[in-house]
Every structure is written in structure tokens, then in C-alpha cells.
Write a structure and sequence with these properties.
The chain is an alpha/beta fold. Helices cover 30% and strands 17% of the residues. 45% of the residues are buried. It binds S-adenosylmethionine and iron/sulfur cluster (2 copies).
Length: 332
């Protein structure tokens, strides 16, 4: 490995399209499968899942992460599809937590299996958790997810707090009708140490048209005005591109991730590894590198491939259309 020392600097301070930006964040999708069928993410009939044999093993994911961490990746997020739907995902968390250089290990989940796994994930070394809950009304939640039970997700959220995760963030994609949910979301951030983040829908994958209508950040910000004054707040750990606000006396915060109204490509610090071993340097670019041929081979070659992806990273992809893969396939 000695020959590779110095690469970290090379990777994080290079010029080129990245203009010297630090690329320190890796999102790893560990499965393209999901136990939900959210209307904006997956077709009702599901998508053609990759055969298990084409999905990276946990050992391969760890080997890739090891190589990337040696090049300067310090933050890793496990996602999917639904990461907790893959067997023994807590074992992968433990393996990733032990990778030298990984200082922040987070996971995004739909929360359905979290009541069962929260304690094991915490014990395995997971630092932080994000739970996606697009509505706090059981019927609307069931319509959005095509049949999932909100109650079970809320039990997962409570369990995550009980076992000591902090911060706990709740991701809410802003869908038409979100205003009807604001009473409940405001109550959550007033009463619980939870950071509710409203996310603008992004036109990723084939399902760009359809049954939702784009809701801009400003519409929800305006609607929140009726609950009181929102003051700017510090980002909780791992704040990323979100902008945070707080109501007076609230235990939690409200955040906005406005990928469409407020392009933050210029600050983009991330790479994505798909479940089938494709390295993507932008959500909106199908220009993937297949790392499977390198992952079990020479570490230095694998790192050259990672550097190629980093050096090819552009920072202006919004506005372009993404290709065929859905967010669940890419790893949101
Ligand atoms: N299944 C897990 C979940 O739902 O949290 C992890 C994967 S999911 C693809 C990750 C996040 O991406 C979720 O918060 C989801 O709501 C969000 N998401 C999916 N499609 C999106 C889109 N087109 N625009 C914005 N966010 C999206
Ligand atoms: Fe599954 Fe998450 Fe996509 Fe919903 S948003 S279908 S939970 S991957
Ligand atoms: Fe980064 Fe691409 Fe998303 Fe812009 S569109 S923030 S460059 S992943």
C-alpha cells in the first residue's frame, strides 16, 4: 500500500473540472430491491431487479470502500433500494465502520424494518440514520408507498431514538398536498429531537411525468409561516446541502434540500457506488464505470479507476435528464 500514500492528497486537491473540490463522500447502494413501491420512485410492478449473483458481496463493498477511503473518502452512506431488506446489513455496517479513514457512517432507510434492527445497527458502529417518511397521515402514507403501514415506520423512528441515534433525520419528498401534513411534521420537530428535511423531487429515472407535481421549497416555506417564525439554525452533523431552520422552543429543526430551486452542484462532494458495482460521479449522468473487473484485483488499479471517476466529475449536471435508472437503482 505504501505506493498509494499521497494519493489522498492527489484525489482531493486536483484541478480539472472539480476545480480542487474535496470529494470525500461515498454513497453505497447495497441492494436495488425494496419492500416499498413509492409512487415517485418505482413503478407499481417493480423494476427488473439484478440477479443476486450480480450484486456486490459485502466483502467487495468493503474492499471498494477501503480503496476509496485511502483516496480521501471519509464519509460513507449506506442506502438502496431498501438497505435493511438485504440480509445481515448490520454485518456490513460493522465491516464499514472498521475501514480506516471512514469517520462518519450513515444509513438511509424507509424505516419499515428499523424497529427490529436499530439496536444492532447502533452496536455495529453506525453513526447516524435518516428515515424517509413522506407523510404522517396513515392513508396518504399508504397511497404514496403503495400499501406500507406508517405505524411500523414510526415504531422504527422511536426505536432509533431510544437506542441513542443522534441526529435522527426524517426525509420528506415534497409531493403535491404536502401542506395537509405540515401540522404533524411541525409537531414532530417541536416535540422530538428530530430533523425534518423537506426534499425537492428530482427528475431521476424514467418516471419523470406521472402522478406527482413538483413542489418547490418556497411553497412549503410559505406554508410553514403560519406556525411561527423560523430562524436559521446550525446544521446537525452531516448537514450536507440542506439549509436548516428552527421554530422557537423546538427540540428539532426543519431543513430543506432544494436540489432544483437552488442548484448545489458546485458544492457536490460525492460519488455513488451502485449495488451492481457501477461507480457514478453524478446522479444525473449515466456515465458509469464498472468496477467489478477491478474490485477483487490489484488495489492500485482499483484506485486508478476511482481517481478516473473523480477526475471526470462535472459539477453542472442539473437540467440534464438522467437516464434509465431509478433512484432506487442508483442509490438515493
Ligand atoms: N429506501 C430507502 C429510503 O426510502 O429511504 C433508501 C433509498 S431511497 C432511493 C433514498 C431517498 O431518496 C429517499 O428519501 C427517497 O424519498 C428519495 N428519493 C427517491 N426518489 C427521489 C427523487 N426522484 N427525488 C428526490 N428524492 C428521491
Ligand atoms: Fe423504496 Fe426508498 Fe424508493 Fe420508496 S424511496 S420505493 S422506500 S427505494
Ligand atoms: Fe452532484 Fe450531480 Fe447532484 Fe449536481 S446533480 S449535486 S453534480 S450528483
Amino acid at each position: 500500500m505504501a505506493a498509494l500514500h499521497g494519493r489522498r492528497e492527489e484525489a482531493s486537491s486536483r484541478g480539472g473540472p472539480g476545480g480542487g473540490r474535496v470529494i470525500d463522500y461515498l454513497r453505497v447502494s447495497i441492494t436495488d430491491r425494496c419492500n416499498f413501491r413509492c409512487v415517485y420512485c418505482m413503478p407499481a410492478e417493480g423494476v427488473r431487479f439484478k440477479d443476486h449473483s450480480r450484486i456486490l458481496t459485502y466483502e467487495e463493498i468493503v474492499r471498494f470502500t477501503w480503496a476509496a477511503a485511502d483516496l480521501g473518502i471519509t464519509r460513507v452512506r449506506v442506502t438502496g433500494g431498501e438497505p435493511l431488506a438485504r440480509k445481515q446489513s448490520q454485518d456490513l455496517v460493522a465491516m464499514l465502520a472498521a475501514v480506516p479513514g471512514v469517520k462518519d457512517l450513515a444509513l438511509t432507510t424507509n424505516g419499515y424494518l428499523l424497529e427490529e434492527y436499530a439496536a444492532a445497527l447502533r452496536a455495529a458502529g453506525l453513526s447516524r440514520i435518516n428515515i424517509s417518511i413522506d407523510s404522517l397521515d396513515p392513508d396518504r402514507f399508504s397511497r404514496i408507498t403503495r400499501g406500507a403501514r406508517l405505524e411500523k415506520v414510526l415504531a422504527g423512528l422511536e426505536r432509533a431514538l431510544e437506542v441513542g441515534f443522534s441526529p435522527v433525520k426524517v426525509n420528506v419528498v415534497m409531493l403535491d398536498g404536502i401542506e395537509d401534513d405540515l401540522d404533524e411534521f411541525v409537531a414532530v420537530c417541536m416535540e422530538m429531537p428530530v430533523h425534518v428535511r423537506f426534499i425537492e423531487f428530482m427528475p431521476v429515472g424514467r418516471r419523470r411525468g406521472g402522478i406527482w407535481k413538483f413542489v418547490p421549497r418556497q411553497r412549503v416555506l410559505d406554508a410553514l409561516g403560519r406556525y411561527g417564525e423560523l430562524s436559521p439554525a446550525h446544521s446537525p452533523q452531516g448537514g450536507g446541502p440542506a439549509r436548516y431552520f428552527r421554530f422557537q422552543g423546538a427540540r428539532g429543526t426543519i431543513g430543506f434540500i432544494s436540489s432544483m430551486s437552488d442548484h448545489f452542484c458546485s458544492e457536490c462532494n460525492r460519488l455513488r457506488l451502485t449495488a451492481d458495482g457501477k461507480l457514478r460521479n453524478c446522479l444525473f449522468s449515466d456515465n458509469e464505470i464498472d468496477v467489478v473487473p477491478y474490485i477483487n484485483g490489484d488495489m492500485e488499479e482499483l484506485q486508478q479507476v476511482i481517481l478516473r471517476s473523480i477526475n471526470g466529475k462535472r459539477f453542472d449536471r442539473l437540467g440534464e435528464e438522467s437516464g434509465g435508472r431509478t433512484m432506487a437503482q442508483i442509490g438515493g
